[in-house]
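Consider the following input, taken from an annotated entry for Arsenate reductase (Streptomyces roseochromogenus subsp. oscitans DS 12.976).
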Amino acid sequence: MEIWINPACSKCRSAISLLDAEGAEYTVRRYLEDVPSEDEIRAVLDRLNLEPWDITRTQEAVAKELGLKDWPREEGSRDRWIAALAEHPKLIQRPIITADDGTALVARSEEAVREALTHNKG
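Applying the prediction step yields:
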């Protein structure tokens, strides 16, 4: 299991605390420093079963600078969104947990972290 975090994020710290409390084995990826490639973002989106705009933090200053709220949310714009996430990783929603069974979750709640743990057993 891997968790993409920003250490400054309270939701990320809460998720890590819960994983630790449950004795989970996981790898931390500080995605602002170890920036995911476009291919890695595509793979995580496939595992999440989401589109890039679904995991974009549209309230970030860079999102406003790029005018993301006006970008089309359609298949033809998918690569543009993914490129923006790879170029500006601060736009990626966090934390994201990728479980060993191939699933992934945006783990912004305790329930989501617990669900990720159920996907990581066995």
